[in-house]
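In this supplementary section we document a worked example of the pipeline. Step one takes a protein sequence of length 191 as its only input; no multiple sequence alignment statistics are reported here. Step two produces a three-dimensional model, which step three serialises into structure tokens for compact storage. The input and output of this example are shown verbatim.
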Amino acid sequence: TVCLMPCATTESVPTTHLLDPARISPLMVAEYMLWFVNSADFCLQNSFLLPADLDSPHYLRVKVPLSPIHIQRHLDGHNTIGIYALDPDSSCGKWFALDGDYSGAEKHLEVIAREMKEDGLFPALEQSRRGGHLWVLCGDPIPARLSRIYLYSLLDRLGYAIQGARGFKEGLEVFPKQEVLAPRSEERRVG
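The serialised model returned by step three reads:
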């Protein structure tokens, strides 16, 4: 028998904790928050989807604020969270990224990373289940408009398709997805 949470038993049973603090330290969680988190709002991937459900949203908005335990569970592989690319008060972000989920995306992302390095940026490539991600972390938050202008210009120069732009269904997905967010009061009235 394995307990997922500390539990009292009458028999001598080894306890396995749900999270391993030795693997995902508080410092790792703090670093993740520092570099990636722009808002306390987040989404959680629905891990109970069936193949027939794939047309429905994969991520569900969580009604509690993002906490260190959510991040620790994400980094430890228990859950996948989706975080927002922009601060809702300033429409600035700590990072911008590309997501390539198509055949050949890894090669495209490598070419883009080389171009970004020539532009003086320090991109980070990450392999994903269906392709890859390319991240650029910013020393200070920058307006979404600037990061989007840079990414669109770079992708146009290289001749790569941008998902959703100009009607392309397949291509690189750009984050942040918009330049400006509605103020929180307006956003809450809509939802």
